[in-house]
Known about the structure:
With 175 residues, this protein is of the alpha+beta class. 34% of the residues lie in helices and 26% in strands. It contains six helices and nine strands; from the N terminus they run E-H-E-E-H-E-H-E-H-E-E-E-H-E-H. The protein has helices spanning 18-31, 58-61, 71-81, 96-105, 140-144, 156-171; strands at 4-10, 36-40, 48-51, 68-70, 84-89, 112-116, 124-127, 130-134, 148-154. The strands form two sheets. It has a seven-stranded mixed beta sheet with strand order 1-9-8-7-2-5-6, sandwiched between helices. Strands 3-4 form a two-stranded antiparallel sheet. Helix 4 (96-105) links the parallel strand 5 and strand 6 (112-116). Helix 1 (18-31) packs parallel to helix 3 and helix 3 (71-81) packs parallel to helix 4. It is globular, with a radius of gyration of 15 Å.
Amino acid sequence: MTLLRRTLRTNARSxxxxxxxxxxxxxxxxxxxxxxxxxxxxxxxxxxxxxxADGSFDYLLGEDPPLQCRLSDLLLMLAKSGTAVRVVTQDxxxxxxxxxxxxxxxxPHADLEVFLDQDLHEKSLVGPGWMFxxxxxxxxxxxxxxxxxxxxxxxxxxxxxxxxxxxxEWTASGV
Length: 175
């Protein structure tokens, strides 16, 4: 099995940005839902992820596709489409808008859980067979401005182990 691991070092002056890779991974997950997606980050902003003004993503974004899709919108769509979505973050003022939008858009039939952990410092996004991890929080500055290191890995066993670890840490402990 060939494993793919790419490390990006981003900053405001570089053309390298993590948001395009993250957008691609979430849209790919939306096209083939299932499994679990875990977003683990102490700080999360409801960043714009998909510009659909030209309708390029209508086929993925549903019957009434939005012109702009934020991170919360994508996670809600994933949860409604059959992917279990787990978000772990801190109960901090910077996260309020993101968490409120998740709560407001929540569908009673969607599999979405939010865990608040004040000791959290880890930063990752994990799905079936893929994962992002590194220094970057999921904020506007983290995605587009700060000097960050983030790795993207296609490795089914490593992603599955991360999910098991997260399940043990948060769902078993009842945070």
